[in-house]
Amino acid sequence: MTERVVRVCGLAKSFRFGGQTVDALREVSFDLDRATLVGIVGTSGSGKTTLVNLLGGLDSPSAGEIWVDGIPVHEIPESRLSGFRREKVGFVFQFYNLIPNLSALENVALPLEFGRVPARLREERARQCLTLAGLPRERHRHPPGRLSGGEQQRVAVARALVNEPAIILADEPTGNLDSAMSRTIMKLLFSLVREHGRTVVVVTHDHELARQADRTLVLEDGRLKAG
Ligand SMILES: Nc1ncnc2c1ncn2[C@@H]1O[C@H](COP(=O)(O)OP(=O)(O)O)[C@@H](O)[C@H]1O
Ligand SMILES: [Mg+2]
User: Fold this and answer.
1) Domain limits for position 188
2) In a domain, 17, yes or no
């Protein structure tokens, strides 16, 4: 039995920009099963980032419904979206978005500081996630500036895992990495799904990944063309 973790229904998002309206997403509907790797593909400007941002509660839809782990995200007021993100979503961005003056370990433990987890446990949990993400133990105390791009992305993946979110959203996570490192990060994302039962949504230009994904959503001009 598969279990649905995301339901999107009639989703639309328009941006007003310099007196004009851009329809970034139009009438998008789909469901996603738990413990799958979902690729999102489409040309630049097709609405991929907009879709991921709406799924993760970084922005609010103009119309339609988004359900994540049974929660109606479209009904959450903007002032409470950060709480939803902390509890339900892990983000991995193209440029890692790590805090430069914190160590890898501190970056990963940071999302736990909003909860009631004691400091010792936070550190232990952060270490486990860094190890799972493949950062060697002797680098756990390094700041991002002393890590390679691939290592920084491993830290970002660890940070995305630390709260045990319902979904992990990765927007072009290998867009800044060479092809060998991209493959390693993709393997890591697949292992999160196959070995740890996480649900991962990846925006990608990587056709190999899109082929291996359990599901591929194709966006074209804000519309879902396939998937
Ligand atoms: N904050 C914004 N303000 C105005 N237009 C935006 C904004 N964000 C995205 N867009 C527009 O929405 C469309 C989809 O953008 P985006 O989701 O970033 O596409 P992708 O990630 O597929 O490249 C584009 O036409 C883009 O210019
Ligand atoms: Mg984008």
Assistant:
1) 37-58+81-226
2) no
